[in-house]
């Protein structure tokens, strides 16, 4: 790998669409490079643009470079402190992990300014990409609160430090303005996938909000669709 320039490379993640993430480490510290095949539905240039905007307001990776060629596309970022929220350590301590997930998502929503965000993740924006719109998605619930959503708030995209506090967020390809329940519905769902049933309300409590079954159901169905 040319980006490694002789430094140590370790594969750390493979997604369901063939993309891979590698850690590069050396005397100058750690970096991460994401790679996606040329025909991938992921667009790492979109993520780079969102990170370059968000880094002015929140704890997200600093973009060191990105590009593409006939072999695929890549995104190189500086490392953040902390460990993935589904590492063995945090899966063994779900109470701490879920509290960090909720607090971290709230901090992200509070930090990113809606008024100047150039990206959308609204219901309209997402449904415009759907081949067919299911009837139950044609009448979205009223917006609770507009925030700049993460766009992929699944547990692995939050980092947790040694003290058990959130320390940053990664993977921002879909980041954009939307109702905060677009994130919360998926974040609580993911908590049950990764830590087992019963952790949804703990995440909402750490975020500082009461459950909202109607919005949760709608945004989970939207997540499944587009």
Kindly describe this structure.
- This protein is 33% helix and 23% strand.
- A hairpin with a 2-residue loop joins β2 and β3.
- The chain is globular and about 55 Å long.
- The chain has helices at 44-54, 88-91, 94-111, 123-127, 180-195, 200-207, 213-225, and strands spanning 8-14, 20-26, 29-36, 63-69, 72-78, 83-84, 146-149, 158-160, 166-169, 176-179.
Number of domains: 2
Largest beta sheet, briefly? Answer: 5 strands, antiparallel
- Overall shape: it is globular
**In sequence order, what are the helices and strands, one letter per element?**
EEEHEEEHHHEEEEHHH
Strand order of the largest sheet: 1-2-3-5-4
Poorly predicted residue ranges:
none
The CATH architecture classification of the largest domain is: Alpha-Beta Complex
What does the secondary structure layout of this molecule look like, with pairings?
Blueprint: E1 8-14, E2 20-26, E3 29-36, H1 44-54, E4 63-69, E5 72-78, E6 83-84, H2 88-91, H3 94-111, H4 123-127, E7 146-149, E8 158-160, E9 166-169, E10 176-179, H5 180-195, H6 200-207, H7 213-225
Antiparallel strand pairs: 1-2, 2-3, 3-5, 4-5, 6-8, 7-10, 8-9
């Amino acid at each position: 790998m040319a980006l490694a320039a002789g430094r140590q490379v370790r594969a750390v993640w493979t997604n369901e669409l063939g993309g891979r993430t590698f850690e590069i480490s050396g005397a100058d510290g750690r970096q991460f490079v994401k790679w996606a095949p040329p025909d991938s539905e992921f667009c790492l240039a979109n993520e780079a643009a969102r990170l370059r905007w968000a880094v002015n307001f929140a704890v997200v990776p600093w973009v060191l470079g990105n590009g593409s060629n006939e072999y695929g596309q890549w995104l190189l970022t500086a490392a953040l402190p902390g460990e993935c929220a589904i590492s063995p350590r945090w899966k063994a301590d779900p109470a701490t992990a879920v509290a960090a997930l909720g607090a971290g998502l709230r901090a992200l929503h509070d930090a990113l300014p809606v008024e100047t965000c150039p990206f959308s993740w609204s219901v309209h924006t997402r449904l415009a990409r759907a081949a067919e719109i299911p009837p139950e998605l044609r009448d979205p619930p009223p917006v609770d609160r507009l925030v700049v959503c993460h766009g992929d708030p699944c547990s692995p995209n939050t980092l947790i430090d040694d003290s058990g506090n959130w320390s940053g967020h990664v993977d921002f390809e879909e980041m954009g303005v939307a109702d905060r329940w677009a994130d919360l519905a998926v974040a609580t769902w993911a908590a049950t996938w990764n830590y087992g049933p019963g952790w949804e309300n703990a995440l909402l409590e750490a975020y500082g909000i009461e459950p909202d079954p109607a919005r949760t159901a709608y945004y989970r169905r939207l997540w499944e669709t587009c």
